[in-house]
Amino acid sequence: MTKETLDFVMSMEFWRMGLLWTLSLLLSYWNLLFASAPPPLSTSPPQSTKPVCIITGATSGLGAAAAHALSARGFFVVLVGRSSHLLEKTMMEIKRKNECAQLKAFEVDLSSFQSILQFKDSLQQWLSDSQMHCSIQLLINNAGILAASSRVTSEGYDQMMATNYLSAFALSKLLLPLLRNSSVPARIVNVTSFTHRTVSNIQADKETVTGKRFSRSKRYPFAHVYEDSKLFLLLFSYELHRQLGLMDISRHISVNAVDPGVVETNMMREFPPCLSSLAFKVLRSLCLLQSPEVGISSILDAALAPPEISGVYFFGGKGNTVRSSMLSYDVKLAKELWNTSSDLFLQSKLDFKETSTSVSNFVS
């Protein structure tokens, strides 16, 4: 065992992952015993023209599997990821299995607000150039990372918090007009995690939401940051559901959260390989580890549920929904998170405009 591996095993974050995350997963499965009757799923898009589905984190794992499954169900799938090479590879793999699949890829750094804004403009331009209706029908915020060390974005935010939560908030806000333009009911699906159950107390101030307070820690609390980001995503899902209900009583746009459980992806690639391999072996022996092709069942449930299904937490496949943690239903906390995130969103838009203006003036 190397010194790096030994240091990792001796850390509090490792034991938090090993013990609390396992207990949280088992609690989710316990709640599954009391799950409500699943709603029927829509087996195909409810319109003659292909509806547009955007999937973030689409270059591997759950995102790639969801892209393949939804393209097979008649969606025009827009893949969003950081690597143009991996995006191209994923599209080739989907085309190999389904030559009729209609796909489009955009290279986007989801930890960067500027990159997200540029993506929004590029997406609208593509819809216009393709003579498609300027709308989208489904947005799946799937992108997520589990970083072993602290990294800061160009905006000064923690990269894990920016990727896992702030990108979903910003993208959802920016694409709401395109979702509203849809001639059929549209939907946002946020991919969260059972790890949110380990959070018992949290603040929704700017220091926490941006992850800046974690940078002051002697050792990067990666497990805490991941849990917080997934709880924030869940709080945001419920609050967006409430906000849209106030603005549109007919609920033209629905919002669902989904927990795929433990899926064998490259999420733990930054950790010692021997420990990742051991964890997967233990989970597989307990029948708790799923392949991406199986793990996407809950994501498809959340995406294809009837339009009136909104503000719920899908888990366990077969259309099942369960209760998330008590803290995730804290309306006051959700509103505080909404206000903090909105302030950061507006500030980032202003910064982007100032940067764009400065560049334009320099060029001219």
Salient structural properties:
364 residues, 7-stranded parallel β-sheet, globular, 9 strands, alpha/beta, two-stranded parallel sheet
Please tell me about this protein's structure.
The protein is an alpha/beta fold and 364 residues long. The protein contains twelve helices and nine strands. The protein has helices at 3-9, 12-32, 61-72, 84-97, 113-129, 159-180, 206-209, 222-247, 273-285, 292-295, 297-304, 331-363; strands at residues 52-56, 76-81, 103-107, 138-141, 186-191, 253-259, 262-263, 289-290, 313-315. Strands 3-2-1-4-5-6-9 form a seven-stranded parallel sheet, with helices on both faces. Strand 4 (138-141), helix 6 and strand 5 (186-191) form a beta-alpha-beta unit. The model has no long low-confidence stretch (mean pLDDT 90).
What is the secondary structure topology, with strand pairs?
Layout: H1 3-9, H2 12-32, E1 52-56, H3 61-72, E2 76-81, H4 84-97, E3 103-107, H5 113-129, E4 138-141, H6 159-180, E5 186-191, H7 206-209, H8 222-247, E6 253-259, E7 262-263, H9 273-285, E8 289-290, H10 292-295, H11 297-304, E9 313-315, H12 331-363
Parallel strand pairs: 1-2, 1-4, 2-3, 4-5, 5-6, 6-9, 7-8
Helix pairs in contact: 5-6, 6-8, 8-12
Regarding quaternary structure, what we see is single chain
Number of extended strands: 9
Shape: globular
Structural class estimated from helices and strands: alpha/beta
Mean pLDDT: 90
Order of helices and strands: HHEHEHEHEHEHHEEHEHHEH
Stretches where pLDDT is under 50 for at least 5 consecutive residues are none
Across the major sheet, the strand order is 3-2-1-4-5-6-9
Instruction: Estimate percent helicity.
Output: 40-55%
The main pleated sheet reads as: 7 strands, parallel
Beta-strand portion reads 5-15%
Distance, first to last CA: 59 Å
What is the alpha-carbon Rg in Å?
20 Å
Number of helices: 12
